[in-house]
Amino acid sequence: MVLVAATVAVGVLAACEPTPPAPSTTTTTMTTAPTTTTTLAPKGALAPVEVHPTPGRRLQPGEVGVLAANAGWCWWQSQRAVIAGHTLLVGSVPNPSAAGGATDVSQVLGLDLATGAITSTDLSTNPYRNDDHNSPGLVVDPDGSVTAGWTGHNNDGTLRFASTAPGSPTAWQRAPDVVLPDLPAPARTSYVNLVRSQGLLFAFTRYNGRDRALWSADDGATWTGGWLLTGGPLDPDGTSPVRPYVQFAANPAKDRIDFVASTGHPKDTVRNALFSGYIRDLQVYRTDGTLVGPLATGEGYRPDQLTPIAAPTGPARPDVAAPYDQPDLWGSDLRVDAAGDPVVAYSLRTPDPSPARAGAFAHEYWWARWDGTTWTNRRLGAAGSELFASERDYTGLATLDPTDPYRVVASSDVSPVTGEPLVSRADGKVHWELYEARSTDAGATWTWRAITANSAEDNLRPLLAAGDGTTALVWLRGRYRSWLNWTTRALVVLGPPKTTALR
Length: 503
Description:
Layout: E1 2-4, E2 50-54, E3 64-68, E4 81-84, E5 87-92, E6 105-112, E7 118-125, E8 137-140, E9 146-150, E10 158-165, E11 168-179, E12 189-197, E13 200-207, E14 210-216, E15 224-229, E16 246-251, E17 256-262, E18 274-280, E19 283-286, E20 291-294, E21 307-313, E22 328-336, E23 342-353, E24 361-370, E25 375-384, E26 398-401, E27 404-412, E28 433-438, E29 447-450, E30 458-467, E31 470-482, E32 485-494
Antiparallel strand pairs: 1-21, 2-7, 3-32, 4-5, 5-6, 6-7, 8-9, 9-10, 10-11, 12-13, 13-14, 14-15, 16-17, 17-18, 18-19, 18-21, 19-20, 22-23, 23-24, 24-25, 26-27, 27-28, 28-29, 30-31, 31-32
């Protein structure tokens, strides 16, 4: 399978579309509404949320700890894991089928890196179905506090927020909700991505198929907003038939927000490709520096107006029903290195069958880095099968080290090097295991080593967070059946994992 740069048209919206006005004339104040579970008050005197402390002991470097017996998360929120002060925080959603039977709750899991004490904070009891898309995105604020944001999975137009006191990353309090208006189609939001940049708190959410940027100058007390991206022409009710999937990262070195967008969902878009850009001073730019236009109301911008990262090429598979007969790309993680250059990990679904399971597809992990002029794409290794049949592009996922662009941790049910199925000696079954990839030649070649091996369960959706002088690896272990049904617990390792593969 070969990846090529996508061919795109550079510029602003087509001439037949209205020119977006300047940001100062397009801001709209979002309305707020109380939730059904807390009584809201002015910031600084908010109602506390429910916290469940668990005594623990300090984890030694390389030692595996259990962060939660019942946990789950999606990968389109950011950041999913952060270190604030000396506390690791992870956004999570428990499932009723797992330990304890917890339900309808969005949580933040906390681990005190000094003492080992664990907290599980219920941010809210949601009026949603059990869905890992309800997991929170997190951001560390300049004063050391933390803000969380979450919403349902196309359930309503409400964005929910909570924050901690400075220096107290487990003392959570609810903040006012943000209710987005109907279009006239009912408002439907998914995902909250929180980014601190240029003196503002940004919240990005998918709103009726389009990605909307909201920003606050007063720590979330009030919000204004405008459109960022869309998948193309809108339906008469104002919704978009194509859903770009977007990941965001703060870029303090260049005082901007970098983002990566797919053309759409791989199962809806033939040869789904990836594009990149950034936001500075409420203006949208291609990664090559070309101005696209302001954040504004209206239809926004298509992903293919941005800088191309890669597009899949190769023959179709004639024995597979469309759209899976075509190769597709999908984002896995986005980071910005110390120089301010964005780095991306993504997956490629090939039309080829996976050697791990009959009827599954063979996936690959890829890595790309912006060198100041263009994107350099490198194949990392085999990614194995999809997690379940109804979503052919759900891989075990790969995550980038926020301190080292040449370190990747990935989940696969085949060897990343040979592509051979990972048959466990523990039970004779194929399981997803964690691997670490490193490069010492600027990404030209990669060396793999196993982090887990011969497991009796799957190891999925790894996260890397850095701070307090350490790097934490968090992942899910258990069984993932769908975004509605999982039986997984959250595990954590501080510092480099031991040389011997973890069980």
